Structures are given as C-alpha cells and as structure tokens.
Amino acid sequence: MNEEELIREIVALRKTLREKKDTLRRLQRDKHVVQECGLTNEEIGRYSRQILVPEIGVKGQLKLKKSSVLIVGAGGLGCPAALYLVGAGIGHIGIIDYDEVEINNLHRQLLHSEESIRVSKVVSATAALTRLNSSVNITPYKMQLDSSNALGIVKQYDVILDATDNVATRYLLNDACVLTGKPLVSGSALKFEGQLTVYNYRGPCYRCVFPTPPPPETVTNCGDGGVLGAAVGTIGVLQALEAMKIILEMSGVLAGRLLLFDGTETLFRNVKLRPKNQNCLICGDNSTIDKLIDYEEFCRAKANDKNPGLKLLKESERLSVKEYHKFADSSATSHVLIDVRSHEEFEICKLPNSINVPFTQISKPNGHALVEQVIRSMRNGDTRIDVIVICRRGNDSQKAVKILKGLINDEAVNIRDVIGGIHAWAKNVDPTFPIY
Amino acid sequence: MTSGYKDLSITVEFRGGAELLFEKKKNELNLPGDEEWTLRRLLFWIRDNLLKDRPELFLLGDTVRPGILVLVNDEDWELLGQGEYKLKPRDTVLFISTLHGG
Ligand SMILES: [Zn+2]
C-alpha cells in the first residue's frame, strides 16, 4: 500500500469513527436525568469542581450553560481560550478563522495537531473541542471577518474574544462590538510578552485608547518577531477567565485597566487606562461612525498577518534564484552575498559564502562599514564587483538594496537582490533547504 | 545654580517592543534641575539622549506616535494632563508599544 492510499484510508476510518461516536452520544443524552436545580447528573459530576467555588455555584453554572462566546482567531490566543471555555461548559462557542493549519502553528496553537496540517483551523479546533466536551454547541466559521459579515455574527453572541493577529481586524471588531453593545475581551502577544484588557464594558473602547492606528511599519507580526507558545497561551487562558467573569456578572473584570505580561521576568503589571472618551468617534456622545468602514484602508494594512510582496526595484536590479544559482556557480566575477535576515534566522540556515548583516543594521554606521569592508576585501582595486542581497522572502532585500545604493556611490559596484529570497531558493533550487 | 529646582531622579522604562529603539528596557535617570520637568520636555530629552535612531518610530510631531501608551506610576498620562504633567522625584514613566500578534 502506498503513502497516498494509506492517508485516504485513515481519513475514511476517522470519518466512520466520528459518525459512530455521534450516534453513541445521542443515545446517551436521551438517558440524562435532570435534577431540580436545573443541571443533569452528568453536568453535576463534570462541573462539580467549579460549582463548589462560591462565585460560581449552580446559578453560575447555569449562566455559563446559557451563554455564548465568539472567539475571533483560532491561533495562539484562541486555542487556549476556547479550550478553557469549552471545558467550563459555556453553552455555545463560535470560532472564526479563514486560515488553514501550518506546521509552524503547532508550537503554540495546541488545539491543532500534526494530522490537521492543511485542514481548516476552525474544523480542526471544532474536532478537538468536541473531543473534550461534546455537550458544548460549537459553530465554526471558516471566513475572513469583514465589514460585510461582522455585525450579523457578533450580535448573536454575549461576549466577544479578540484573538486576532492584526490591527485592521482589531478596529473592525471594536466597532462591531460598540455598534452591537457587546463586551470585547482583547488579547495580544509577541515574543515573551502579552497584553490583555476588556473594551466596551463599563469603560473605554479600543478607539477611546487608540484613536489613530499605528504606522504600519511599526507593527511586528509573529512570523517576523517570533512568539513563545507559553507566553501567548498565558494571555489566551486569561481571556477565557475574563469572559467567564463577565458572564457571571462578577465585579473584578479587567475593564479600564490593561494587563502587561512580561514572561522574561514573569512580571504582571496592571495599569490604569483613561476612561471612555466622550468625543470617541464610535462610542462617544456624538459618534459619527454608525456603520462599519473599510478597516484595511483605515489602518493602511491588510487584515491578516501575512507579509505582502513588495515591488520596490526594477527588473534589472533583481535576480531569480535560478539566475543567482548559475551566477554563483560560474564564478567568472567575484561577488559578495549579503544576507539581511536576523542573526537567529541566519543560524537556522544560510547559503554558502553569505555574510550576515541584519536589515536593522544596514543603515547604521556599523552595518554599512561592514558591507564596505567586505566589498573592499573581495575586490581587486577598482574592478567591477557584484553585491547580491538576500533575505527570507525578498522584501527586506529590496529595501536593503535601496539603502545600500544610497550609501555606496560607486558605479562599478552592482547591487541587486534575489527574488523570493531563501524561500524561493528552497522551492526552486535546493529542496533539502528548510522553509520557516 | 540660581534656579529653585533640585536634580530629578526618575525611572524610565520601555516595553512591548519600544525597548528595541533604546539600549535598555529600564533606565534610572538623574535629570538636571535647571528648570521644571514636564512629560513633554522628557519626551524630547529621551529623543535627544536615549533614542538610538529612527525618531519617527517613537515621536510624531510633539507627542508619541500612535500605538505607544505613556504611563506615569502605572497610570495613563491622559488622566494626568499628558505632556503638561510635572514630573516628581521617583516617578516611573513607562512607554508601552502595543502588541498585535496572537
Ligand atoms: Zn470609544
């Protein structure tokens, strides 16, 4: 039996197993005994350890059962948040995500597993959550949340979790929550750090605190900056906690305050935010925004965390990976290969004879001096020399070429970049090269 | 010194990625007591003395760029009069860049 046949057979067997389990569950549910308090014997056993907590009790458990929570993003925040909400017995959970599971998600998005690679995240998450607690009603939405669909979905839920990874969706969700009157539990994380607060709940909304979106060049995503599973997971778990406190109508909800978590020092810091702004464009007394707008335009950034392909250079300033491969092999002229990725990325993999000058260093005196020194050492007097710049995907390399051309004023130095960077090299030249 | 101000010892911290623009996350500063220190004056002092490069990633006009929160003793500077706030000895000023990943 070959690999593909075996995979097909496993998929078919899983489907049969799922169907049989569903049938069994239905049969068992019919036999449930409901006690006078309103909970079934199964629920009493299952949730007993939290029902015993005075803040919850039977009343609280019934509130959780009757409530609904929408989780936007089935990633590093959404996975742990969903896990704890489903474990606690929230009646209805909605999960929105347009994306599929990739292998680089699995270190932090722990609802997904190796067998769900290339499967839709919401399908994978629903399957994992149903395995944990089949009595919770889970609605998966495989879609990009946008101005046309957000209000219709958001209004069906009691509490909304912002577990997204980009600025445009954060403004969209905020506005949708203000317009429908829903509390928004907002989490975010990067590297070892996390931030958490509750908007539009007896306090400011996101726009009250951040009326203007940040300049796009100041925003770092997880794919570039990196993120630790346990750090982002800490914030995701706390989002579940805040959502439950809102449902239970408890007083200590993190509204008007911002929690700052720094995992490098295990430091939790709670800071006091400004109150609701009377002049806020969406939640203020004379709000001017009464429907959702174009948030990608407002933020000048795409509503995802993927890197767009830049086009800064002319065709003559660029080499394809195949052209570079040939060019490096022919070795008729000497050339310098500058890799502008971070030191961490350079450590993962590199092309032979490449020199690492991170993009953040290129325009600084040190980085610039290093490049000039390398050029000098590779060059015989004033002869022509080729400088080739490479990065991960071919974006930073173009910016670096622009910067270097401005700094090195020498016609005999021919500076170009490699289209598609290391990724294209792995795809089209050396299939043994890693992709990250 | 003829002014009536003493030198001012404060702590300035950068977090949430804002520290990448500076040498250190935490800075113990002793500012000259030549005149009164407001938060606005501190912003420019930081730009001129602590910032490594690219001031546009920290300041926009005469305030911090969108996406940076300023907190004094863990309180939003909006509650304290923003740039007009007069710094006191042992104040902790925290600059937080907001995160968006998840
Ligand atoms: Zn507002």
From TrEMBL, chain A:
Keyword Transport: no
GO cellular component, one term: cytosol
Function according to Swiss-Prot or TrEMBL: Plays a central role in 2-thiolation of mcm(5)S(2)U at tRNA wobble positions of cytosolic tRNA(Lys), tRNA(Glu) and tRNA(Gln). Acts by mediating the C-terminal thiocarboxylation of the sulfur carrier URM1. Its N-terminus first activates URM1 as acyl-adenylate (-COAMP), then the persulfide sulfur on the catalytic cysteine is transferred to URM1 to form thiocarboxylation (-COSH) of its C-terminus. The reaction probably involves hydrogen sulfide that is generated from the persulfide intermediate and that acts as nucleophile towards URM1. Subsequently, a transient disulfide bond is formed.
Record-annotated Rhodanese domain positions: 331-434
Name listed for the protein in its UniProt record: Adenylyltransferase and sulfurtransferase MOCS3 homolog
Family membership noted in the UniProt record: In the N-terminal section; belongs to the HesA/MoeB/ThiF family. UBA4 subfamily.
Predominant subcellular localization, coarse grouping: cytoplasm
Active-site residues from the entry: C222, C391
Binding of Zn(2+), residues: C205, C208, C280, C283
Pathway named in the protein's UniProt entry: tRNA modification; 5-methoxycarbonylmethyl-2-thiouridine-tRNA biosynthesis
Any one of the GO BP annotations: protein urmylation
Entry note: cofactor: Binds 1 zinc ion per subunit.
EC number: 2.7.7.-, 2.8.1.-
PROSITE patterns in alphabetical order: RHODANESE_3
Swiss-Prot/TrEMBL cofactor(s): Zn(2+)
A molecular-function term among this protein's GO annotations: URM1 activating enzyme activity
Subcellular location: Cytoplasm, Cytosol
Organism classification: Eukaryota, Metazoa, Ecdysozoa, Arthropoda, Hexapoda
Cross-referenced InterPro entries: MOCS3/Uba4, Rhodanese-like_dom, Rhodanese-like_dom_sf, ThiF/MoeB/HesA, ThiF_NAD_FAD-bd, Ubiquitin-activating_enz
Automatic annotation (TrEMBL), chain B:
Keywords: Cytoplasm, Isopeptide bond, tRNA processing, Ubl conjugation pathway
An individual GO BP term: tRNA wobble uridine modification
Record bears the keyword tRNA processing: yes
Protein modification: C-terminal thiocarboxylation occurs in 2 steps, it is first acyl-adenylated (-COAMP) via the hesA/moeB/thiF part of the MOCS3/UBA4 homolog, then thiocarboxylated (-COSH) via the rhodanese domain of the MOCS3/UBA4 homolog.
Keyword Phosphoprotein among UniProt keywords: no
Location of this chain's protein in the cell: Cytoplasm
Taxonomic superkingdom: Eukaryota
Gene3D superfamilies for this protein: 3.10.20.30
Pathway as given in its UniProt record: tRNA modification; 5-methoxycarbonylmethyl-2-thiouridine-tRNA biosynthesis
Residue(s) of cross-link: Glycyl lysine isopeptide (Gly-Lys) (interchain with K-? in acceptor proteins): G102
HAMAP family with a match to the protein in the record: Urm1 (MF_03048)
Task performed by this protein: Acts as a sulfur carrier required for 2-thiolation of mcm(5)S(2)U at tRNA wobble positions of cytosolic tRNA(Lys), tRNA(Glu) and tRNA(Gln). Serves as sulfur donor in tRNA 2-thiolation reaction by being thiocarboxylated (-COSH) at its C-terminus by the MOCS3/UBA4 homolog. The sulfur is then transferred to tRNA to form 2-thiolation of mcm(5)S(2)U. Also acts as a ubiquitin-like protein (UBL) that is covalently conjugated via an isopeptide bond to lysine residues of target proteins.
Family designation: Belongs to the URM1 family.
Name this polypeptide is given: Ubiquitin-related modifier 1 homolog
Species: Neodiprion lecontei
The encoding gene: LOC107220426
